[in-house]
Request: fold
Amino acid sequence: MDLILLLEQGLNGLQFGLMLFLLAAGLTLVFGIMDMINLAHGSLYMIGAYLAAVVMERTGSFAIAVVVALVGTALIGIVLEIVLLRRLYRRDHLTQVLATFALLLIADEVVRIVFGPQALTLNPPDALSGPVELIPGFTYSSYRLFIIAVGLIVALALYLLVTKTRVGMLVRAGASNRDMALAMGVDVNRLFTAVFGVGAALSALAGAMLGPLLAVEVGMGEGILILAFVVIVVGGIGSIRGALVGAIVVGTVDTLGRTLLPMSLRAMLPPSIASNLGPALASILIYVLMAGVLFWRPQGLFPARG
Amino acid sequence: MQVRAEQVSLEHPLRAWIALPLLLALIAFPLVMRSIEQPFYIVLVTRILIFALVATSLNLLVGFGGLVSFGHAAFLGAGAYVVGILMFHGIHSAWVVWPIAVGISAFAALLIGAISLRTRGVYFIMITLAFAQMVYYVFVSMKAYGGDDGLTLLARSQIGFGIDLKSDVAFYYVVLAVVAVCLFLFARLLNSRYGRVLQGTRENEIRMEAVGYPIYRYRLVAFVIAGAVAGLGGALLANLNLMASPNTLHWPQSGMLLIMVILGGVGTLWGGVMGATVLLLLEEILSTYTIHWQLGVGLVLLAVVLFAPNGLAAIARAVRANGPTK
Reply:
């Protein structure tokens, strides 16, 4: 097998995994601490991408676009939490599914009304548009490298925030035993709002960063939302470490599977069967992984609740 | 996870004074529509009937078994694709194709249920979703059967007896008959010994296990029945649309089915029927006024969550309880 190809796909997998982590981090904390299934989390990702695309078009600055996307989506998330989602924490999961599915429909339609039905393009900053030679004979997209760097920095910052600070301690306390944290006098209302705002900002960051690679369109949040759910279930609901490991595993398995499986199948099977089977198996792979984890370790790889 | 019925009653009578007039009205419906020359509504009501059936089958799991499945579209889509694929190979008889569609959906439900039912709560939601996604990708990847574009049916299944399903009215009556029989059997099932045990496992799993019921097997039977009925619904839907589409397999479809159940009333006999009727009518009405009908659907669903937490059936019940007697 071609080593260069493997290296390239491995980096692509890491890059996709880190972006999945940005989405999954907010989702897993909301799920773990507030015990809430939020199907509208993908909509925040979509809103982030749209904000970034529009600001980029007006100002031409990718940095301003990302900052506006982050702040704007965080504000939308905070308002949403205070006005609506707060009422849902004590309701059963079914009600949460209904309400956040409704939010997803509303968000899709509002975005379609405001920005129009056609997909927007978001260009990467000029400085990062070319490839870069990593080792002699191996060039890689500098923008993807930039995404990897941003993902790693955010992951590290989040890890330090959750493990080393007082706020992080409250978050962990909430995730491992919400009622006890409540009893010890944690101001949960403010904590929940803050967690939701940070989660919204992170998913907006993922949307803005992935925007140049994927299409910025209505419905972009739905596909990636399910992947983010796979990540948090594999990693263990409520665990940031689990979300990071799960995201990188899912991102790598998905990316590598899509390249390597069809290739290795072509070597073994007649091409007519291989060309049908390859993509199917590759798409299914992560769901097999998830079902396997749920079957053997239902609490995920890194359970947050002791 | 607890699925809370507002007031627990294990008895779910079919209520002949609702069912019979409704049935008679539905039998008369095409005649009326034809006389006022609005045949379009016959197709709409056929679709509502099919989704009423599928939502009811999901309600058996969610409402009566306490098993929130987020992958019910898998069985709906499997039923539709079986009809499409067999027709593609020249098998047209409904008496052959529909039972095969039901059988394959039931078998898929047996496999998926056998594994999924070992998990609980949120994990059950997620594992059923994972399996449904697998089924989705299996069918989408079969290029010979349409892949992403779905599989177009050349004609409706053939039922014999000189009845031609090409006619929307004839097809309507077949669907009505199937759905009416299924709902009748559903009511019988709920009020049978089996139905009581299933609802018992929803109320208190550990207690039922302690009393000696093999709850895993009871739940698996419910999962298979629900999958089989959804497969039948899928077979009917493929015949209605003349199409087996990947969208019927995709997760938003599972979400829509769950929403029908929640909207109509979790754990009520008529919940699935009411939810499917209201949601599809809402879509239909809103989409005649605006292309942004999803916005309206979303707002109505939010309003239901905030103001009618137990679904529409609960409102009907409350009206009955407070209305004429006081």
Remarks:
- Chain B touches chain A through 49 residues (CB under 8 Å).
- The first helix of chain B runs from residue 16 to 35.
- Strands of chain B lie at 151-152, 243-244.
